[in-house]
Hints:
The protein is α/β, with parallel strands linked by helices. The chain has a single domain, classed as P-loop containing nucleotide triphosphate hydrolases (Rossmann fold). Helices cover 36% and strands 29% of the residues. The protein is built from 7 helices and 10 strands. It has helices at 22-35, 49-58, 63-69, 82-100, 110-116, 120-137, 160-163; strands at residues 11-16, 40-44, 72-76, 104-108, 140-148, 151-155, 166-174, 180-190, 200-205, 208-211. Strands 1, 2, 3, 4, 5, 6, 7, 8, 9 and 10 form a 10-stranded mixed sheet that branches. The protein is globular. The chain starts with 10 loop residues before the first strand and ends in a 10-residue tail after the last strand. It binds adenosine-5'-triphosphate (ATP) and magnesium ion.
Amino acid sequence: MLSGGFPAGSVVLVTGLPGTGKTCFGLQFLTSGAARGERGAFLSLEEDESALVATARQFGWAVDQAVSSGTLKIVRLDPRETKQNLHRIQGEVVKELQAFGAKRIVVDSVSLLNMLAEDEAGRRSTLFTLAGACRASGATTVLTAEADPLHPEVTRDGLSEYVADGVILLGYSTASDGHRVGLSLRVLKMRRTPHARTVQPYAIGPQGITVDARAVDLGRF
Length: 221
Ligand SMILES: Nc1ncnc2c1ncn2[C@@H]1O[C@H](COP(=O)(O)OP(=O)(O)OP(=O)(O)O)[C@@H](O)[C@H]1O
Ligand SMILES: [Mg+2]
């Protein structure tokens, strides 16, 4: 769908409603990198390290081993330490990741970070600074964000998609009676990359996320 994956050094937003697999996507992005010898970092504002390790283990990804061997870093950012977190992320954390040599970074999720900002200007500045710092580090970054429950094709903050170079929308496909019948994804944008615009079914199974390669356009999303 992406003519060979995310462009190196880009910031890609993965957005979707709860349970669409954003955290799983982030973990999978890092484990596929680790399999190629690339160091990765998971900045978690939501789940703690043990929950992430347990999720990954379900899919057969030994992230605990990757952590102990030094190919993966899990950084837990406590949302309660609001101000300090914003400064930490914008400053030392990204520098630390650069020094660590992270080729892939995941921030799960920016929604919480956005809620911590005091106003619209604060949200903008946080997001732009974060994306800028990730780009400057040279790593390829996945930012996850919650979709707006009323308009699931956009993020709650309505900003992250402008900041990112690419946007992947994870969602529930619905039948004509409105019932959710499965999961499907779309690439909404990917700067400097020719990409598919089809709505593609995907599944979360024992191996993690697998996208159905057949170009089945489910039409409704
Ligand atoms: N082993 C598994 N087999 C099949 N499906 C699974 C498995 N593990 C998790 N899932 C599915 O993945 C979903 C969780 O994915 P994940 O936590 O990545 O979602 P999320 O988008 O990050 O959700 P949230 O917005 O709540 O953080 C579960 O609700 C479940 O439907
Ligand atoms: Mg999640």
